[in-house]
Amino acid sequence: MGAEEGDALVHGIVSGWRGAGLSAEDLALCEFASKLTRNPADMSPQDLDRLRAAGFDDRAIHDATQVAGFFNYITRIADGLGVEPETFIDEWGRVDA
Hints:
By secondary structure, this protein is mainly alpha-helical. About 65% of the residues lie in helices and about 0% in strands. It is globular.
């Protein structure tokens, strides 16, 4: 995958991962991460079973949970402290002229 294809994939995921043409495995992972982020109290053993059915072993599930949890944590810290994005980071969706 070239850089332009990779950029298009990333932007497609950010703007709507359900319609970004992801593999079944990636869709299952995104669904898991989304639920963990938005409704953590609703997580159940069935969520883990869905990842296992998509081909993830327990180590991969652990790693995915750690990554999603870390990003949720650090985003809440930044939001809580009013941290502004770095000036060198482009906003998603911004089109350079």
